[in-house]
Specification:
Rossmann fold, 2 domains, three-stranded parallel sheet, 16% strand
Length: 280
């Protein structure tokens, strides 16, 4: 068996075309996404440039606000509150990691929930328990979208999520529960991880440990979504799934890079347009 590769780049490109049409329907009023960063992080700079290119393609203005090192939590929260008050700003994102001494949860909570286009405000996270919110967490929404595109019947599907982070693991588990999948969440306390992964029709891996899941841990024909991004000593980016061995077993498989990442950026833009009032 050779896995069908879930091409996130192609999927994101198709999404951007639809998003551009939705942006045009909003008319000439500005739709602005503001990225806030404290200090300079070269890795974050690359990510922001990718976001800017994608935003420009859709027709969203993306503003980058670089605050100096030494910015306190109170100063960062004040800057966010100023963006909350600006009517032309549809969305606000804060780049991570934040300097030591700044509480990411306090910062995320300071963003107006209606402008929280990353979907990480407690109000938006809580809404997941009742329904898919207007502004879902981008990476979890991207993973869900990739799974849905396979055409698999999600009702009753055995789903295993490896990783229980607030950003990916917990929200993707709940999103798939809404599809009536049978979901197991594994984490650092899980005993005999492979016993769980081998029974999964859908396997989502998001822990940040290169090559954690090998082909012998995967059920033949499974849909495997690799959310991990790990940089090796040679600078090469790899996922949490050992791609070569997984590709001989899985039915569908996301590559790293080029899988979840591009769709995550597209979801960020979708959320920004939704926050601006677009129907998309």
């Amino acid at each position: 068996m050779t896995a069908q590769i879930l091409d996130g780049k192609a999927l994101a490109q198709a999404m951007r075309l639809r998003l551009r049409s939705a942006r045009q329907r909003l008319g000439p009023r500005p739709v602005r996404l503001v990225s806030v960063e404290v200090g300079q992080n070269p890795a974050a700079d690359v990510y922001v440039r990718n976001q800017q290119r994608a935003a420009a393609e859709v027709g969203i203005e993306m503003e980058v606000s670089n605050l100096p090192l030494g910015t306190t939590e109170a100063m960062l929260v004040a800057a966010i509150q100023d963006l909350n008050r600006r009517p032309e700003v549809a969305g606000v994102i804060v780049q991570r990691p934040l300097p030591i001494g700044i509480d990411p949860r306090a910062v995320q909570s300071a963003i107006d929930p209606h402008k929280d286009v990353e979907g990480m405000h407690p109000a938006n996270m809580g809404a997941i328990l009742y329904r898919e919110p207007l502004l879902p967490p981008c990476t979890a929404a991207a993973a869900q979208h990739l799974i849905v595109t396979t055409g698999m019947d999600l009702r009753g599907a055995e789903t295993v999520v490896v990783g229980h982070s607030e950003i990916v693991g917990k929200p993707i588990a709940v999103l798939l529960l809404h599809h009536l999948s049978t979901v197991t969440v594994c984490h650092v306390g899980t005993r005999h991880l492979a016993d769980h992964t081998r029974r999964a029709d859908i396997l989502v891996v998001a822990v940040g440990k290169a090559g954690l899941v090998h082909g012998d841990m995967i059920k033949p024909g499974a849909c495997v979504v690799d959310v991990g991004i790990n940089q090796g000593p040679d600078g090469k980016i790899t996922g949490d799934v050992h791609f070569a061995s997984a590709a001989t077993v899985a039915g569908w498989l996301t590559p790293v890079p080029g899988g979840v990442g591009p769709v995550t950026v597209a979801m960020l833009l979708r959320n920004t347009l939704r926050a601006a009032g677009a129907e998309v």
